[in-house]
Structure formats: structure tokens, C-alpha cells
Amino acid sequence: MVRSIDPDQVGFDPARLARIDEHFGRYVDEGRLAGWQAVVTRRGEVVHSTAYGLRDREAGTPVEADTLWRIYSMTKPVTSVAAMLLWEEGRFELTDEISRWLPEFADLRVYAKGSTLKPYTVPAVEPIRVWHLLTHTSGLTYGFMQTSVVDGLYRAAGYDLYPPSDVDLAGACAAFGRLPLLFQPGTAWGYSVATDVLGRLIEVLSGQSLDAFLTDRIFRPLGMTDTRWYVEGEDGDRLAALYAPDPRTGRAMRYDQLGALAYQKPALLSGGGGLISSAADYHRFTQMLLRGGELDGVRLLGPRTVRFMTRNHLPGGQDLGTLSTGGFAETTLDGIGFGLGFAVVDDPIPSRVPSSVGEYYWGGVASTAFWVDPAEEITALFFTQLLPSSTYPIRPQLRQLVYSALVD
Hints:
This protein is of the alpha+beta class.
């Protein structure tokens, strides 16, 4: 991607924007990241677009405009938009019980006490509803969280950062339905496989596989030609290598144990974390959101739907700092609500990070991130491949650098 306008024409100081390159350039120069790509826009115009370092340090290949990135949980907003396409067609209500279409989630049990070897559970007093999936208030969890007995049960069933290699989305949902919930639905916030379950709901409601639905209804209409579930052929050379920090030195070390999975067609289409994309593609997705569901004459969602999705839907208007079950390090939680697929800034002051009320965002476990700021008409994207995302404070630092460059 290239800059489409002089930054000072839309209120940005170009010299201050250059601090993004200087700051994150040091991450590469010091060996903490192999390479990265950043894109900042205002009012639909690209004001800053930079690629720095190497997409594959061992091969010596640079980050380029068309580099492909594992976006992991940045898949979640895409799946959430897909679900709301069906909602706009009247295919479900947000208050519907998901067991209406996914019977494996009927008669659920909730963990009360005990160990992974002998958990004690009680009946769920509230069913999982569609809005619980979209807001991560369902009581489902992730095995990789490693903070509760319930996520230990997920790991024992084979569901850690990746699912068993031979299980598809339907099979995974059947397994999740047999496991106890972490909490009663609607009473807390817990990051989870909920968006994978949402992906399965999309399949049942639409009669299409999740990959076909996303291609037909989002990727093709928006021209997101690089977004896919795995890479093959010549495109494999465009994919950035995956890294993790060396516990002794902090330097990024190649992590092919997980990175190599991106070259294989997955059995499970993970609506919560399965996509690979490019900066140009995800830029188009965020521009569609900023423009209220429309881009280049193609409308996916109505503007009121986008505004509805990006308000705080947590019970009682509480924030994640109050409702979170813990073990989640992607973002600062105080002053942050959660909408239908996005974290939402209710109050930027408690986080001590500059942002606007109403800004919404998310990121991926390999340190990718995006946000959309409707008040300032800004979008920002950052791509790298360092796992986990809590290794360095990349996201708050990017906000500092972007907002301090806004001078109008």
C-alpha cells in the first residue's frame, strides 16, 4: 500500500507519524521482531504506510506490501460481521437460544468446584444465546488460557491453542457442548471459542461451509483477494514466518511448530482464529466498517447495524475490568466494553492510553492489531508475527504514536 494523501491535509503531522517507523524499527534492530507492517488512514485516505524488516529472517526476505500474515483472532470481527449479515436478513434474533440450531448446547452444565479429574457441576440457569457468543459472555473458554479448571478440561479434550488435527467445526462444537461452562451465561466475560461456535451457527443457518460463506458474502464483494485459510504454491513465499521470544535473550526465534500449520488445509475452519490476510485486504475490511458497512458501492451492513455492533453490550454497561474472568492479556480492560465482535472504548482515561470514546478494535495472538475510530475517522493496522501478543506493549505504543501525530 502507498500513501494516498499528504498527512497534513487531514490533520496529521508527517514528522510525528515518522516516529512510528523509528520506534518500531528499534524492535527489529534489537532483534525483538523480525519485521512489521503498519497502515494509518484518516477520512478514507492512507496517511502512513510502512513495511520494515524481514518477513522471514532466516531466508532474508523483506516485508513487502503484499506480505501475508496469520491474523488469528482478527478473524473474530470478520465472523461477527458474517453473522450480522444473516441477522439483517431476519435469520435469527440475538436473544435466540443457540440450541435451536445446535442441539449439542442444550442441557448445559456449569463448573462449580473441584479439579480437572473430579469437577463438580450444576445446571445452567440461562441458555447460551446468540448475543452471548458475540460478546464472549457465554461461559465457554479457551484451553490455552491456563487459568481455570475448565480450560484444563478443554486441554484434556485436545483443545489447546489448536484443535485436534482431524476434527472439523461440527465435531469441535459437539465436544464443547459436552464440557462444562466456566460461568453461567451472561454473568461474566471470558475470552473463548464462542466465535468458533458462531462460525458453526453461520454454517447451519446459511447451508454453506464457513469458508464459502465468507468468500461469497465478504471477501469477494470487498475485493479481499488475499484472505484465506491456508497458503499454497507461490503464495507460500509471501507468508511471514512465525516467531516467539527466546526466554533467555528476548530475541524473536522462529516458531515453525505452529507456523508450519498455515501451509496445510485445516480440517476445522476456525471463525475465531483461522484466517491469513494482507494489510491491503484488512484495510478494505476496516474501511467498510468506518464507512458504516459500505465500501466502493458495495454495502454489506446497514450503518445502524455497525453502530449497534460497536456499542458496549456487556450487562449493565459494565467494563471488562469488572466482568473479565482473568487470564487475558490482549488489552487493558478498565474503561473497555465489548460489543458484537469488538472491544469498545467507553472511557479512555482508566487505560491511560489515548483513544476516542466509541473506538473499537481487536488483535491477534501473533501481535497483529487494528482499530477503527469513528470520532476522528481514523483506522490503524499493525502486522507482525510474534507470539504471544502480550510479549511487548505494541498496541498501546502504537496508539500513543498515532494520536500524538494528530494535530488538527
